[in-house]
Amino acid sequence: MSTVIDEKRARELEEKFDPEMRFRPVTDVAGTLVAAALLALSSFHYYTAGFGLLEETLHRGVHMAFVLSLIFLVFARTKAGQGVAVASTLGAPGGVPIYDWILAAAAIVSVLYVPSIFEELAFLVGNPRTQDVVMGTVLIAVAIEATRRTMGWPLPLIAIAFMVYGLYGQYAPGVLVHPGATWSGLVNHLYLTTQGIYGLPLGVVSTYVFHFVLFGVLATKIGLGQLFIDMATWAAGRYAGGPAKVSIFGSALFGMISGSSIANTVTVGSLTIPAMIRIGYRRHFAAAVEATASTGGQITPPVMGAAAFLMIEFLGVSYQTIILAAIVPAFMHFFGVFMQVHFEAKRHGLRGLAPDELPDPREVLRRDWPTVFPLAILVAILLSGYTPYLAAFWGITACIAVGLLNPGRRLTLSDLVDGFVTGAKYALAVGAAAATVGIVVGVVTLTGVGFKISFIVTSGAKEATGWILPLIPFGLVSPQGLTLFLTLLLTGIVCILMGCGIPTTATYIIMVTVAAPTLGVLGVAPIVAHFFVFYYGVLADITPPVAMAAYAGASLANADPFKTGNTAFRLGLAKALVPFVFVFSPSLLLVAPGFNWPDFLVTLIGCLLGVVCLAATLSDFFLVRMRGWERALGAVAGILLIAPGVMPTLAGVVLVAPVVVRHLAARRGVGHAA
Question: The whole model's pTM is what?
Fold first, then answer.
């Protein structure tokens, strides 16, 4: 099994499978301008992270001006035009149509207009002038169009629907009704206040997210990702189904610095998927393993997805708190995938990697040990209580130093420039999404629709509880518990549906805005509610019908995409169940209110045993092949074990005990026969 990452090949695969990275070729002066602007965007964020941010509105404005204008230069108007070179003519200088140059200029002017009149804003909010409304209208239009080009129609349509609701709320049914707003009033709120486009989502992307994306790109370029994959291969590759276990460990480690499901899938998967197929895993299963493991990158500390940084601002907590809360749920996700992979390998008798297919750990460490320093420095500064962007600044600085000085993998200046340019490319789509999500958040704060939806959901859950509760014998479930469960179930389904074609960050922001109040009404602590929504937003990457990470893996494996998506969802079952557990038993998050060690230990042990039971049931194998009645018992026992509380855990142990006894006896008999 080759463990050497081909960066060029990985980049090609990512551009093929990730719509957010499909740039059209630009030529002549346009090509130079785009490259210079991407480099300038990364340099701007690197400098301000270390030497001080600009005034809030100006900082966000500069970031958004770069992002939106660049999108119109490098993303074509239609999918057919993506990745297609356009001949340079008077109507398309540099291969960019003249209307896109106009849109890019309009984006810059409308974005920077607000910082330019910052001193007057206090007098304009609530009483916008005609030019303010015109500029706001232009920015709303270009933000929605930029998001459509980079991500497709789902998020823009949601933003448009919310604006229509804001304008014509007087015609909404029932509790959703509100007086409605004029266009100038809506633009005033979305454009001239920090409750809309210039709000929290854009602020987090421009002060936290960009820096960590750039750090991840540079850390990968200096060889940290290669070190992780090599060490994962050496540690896990020799065991049954070795390449699949390498995929899990490698994706967990690589995900700490990438934070992108698709980037993780195509980079690690280009190595592990062919190896899994070669030793006997079915194609769709191999692709699903890599996709499921890769989605764990967004929930793996210390560098998680963009939503982690949004949590800091939404919740007003430190990054250390978010890291601690994420540790156990992230472990449970990878543990669940690992057990299913292990049982699948045992069931089919799949081998591990041969000694000559494993990397030499001494050679790996001799070559790449310096690459650990940037990550160590970043984590140390984060844990010391400094701001995340300062930690990222020193992490990036360490990457530059290691890249220039490491004799085993020395980078040239052009390599570092390429890293800065690539880092900025990753920021374009999420930057546009942040602006468009700001529109949604602005309408929510203007109309109060979040609390209206909370009332509808909780009322519906209570009504459904009244129907279902009489059907449950012996009073096993309380009315409050059933109401909360039904509310969580509905919220999880909506998160998955919202995540179909919408990035995790955007899904998280929208759902937290409208769903967090619902869970809060039912007594769920804010950090628990945010993590629940976050996890279900991530789950959308491997949930059909739109499972982008699973489809990327399927293309690498030449497998059926829908079958791959279904298998990936099955492999990620722990990620779907554990959020319910930490809502009912918040101690699993370590830092949630009411934490205590007995509750934590009972819940953790129950979850571990439950995940093993469910993995065996889904894989049709424990120590030997399972019979029908054993799979039924295993499924019920798994649910009981995962359910928080001592009594369900004991009941699950009792149910699964006969299965374990039978398998131990059968295994012993096989051993004697051998």
Answer: 0.88
- Among 39-43, 267-271, 470-474, top mean pLDDT goes to 39-43
Cβ contact 452:175 at 8 Å: yes
Distance between CA atoms of residues 620 and 636, nearest Å: 15
Written as six digits, the tokens of 213 are 């994306």
Distance CA 470, CA 47 (A): 63
Segment 485-541, tens digit of pLDDT = 999 998 888 887 776 667 777 888 888 888 888 888 888 999 999 999 888 888 877
For residue 6, what pLDDT is reported? 58
Token pair for residue 462? 């209570």
Q: What is the dihedral of CA 143, 437, 11, 31, to 10 degrees?
A: 20
Cα torsion 552, 557, 561, 567: sign: negative
Rounded to the nearest 10 degrees, the angle between the axes of helix 646-673 and helix 597-619 is 40
500's CB contacts (< 8 A; 6+ apart) are 154, 540, 543, 545, 546
Alpha helices in 349-448 (DSSP H): 361-368, 372-383, 388-405, 413-447
Nearest to 143 by CA among 163, 127, 123, 124: 163
Summarised one tens digit per residue, pLDDT across range 219-263 is 989 999 889 999 999 999 989 888 999 999 988 888 777 667 777
Cβ atoms of 20 and 263 closer than 8 Å: no
> Mean of the per-residue pLDDT values for the chain?
88
Q: Is 200 exposed, middle or buried (0-12, 13-18, 19+ CB in 10 A)?
A: middle
Phi/psi at 627 (5° precision): -90, 170
Helix axes 361-368, 224-236, angle to 10 degrees: 170
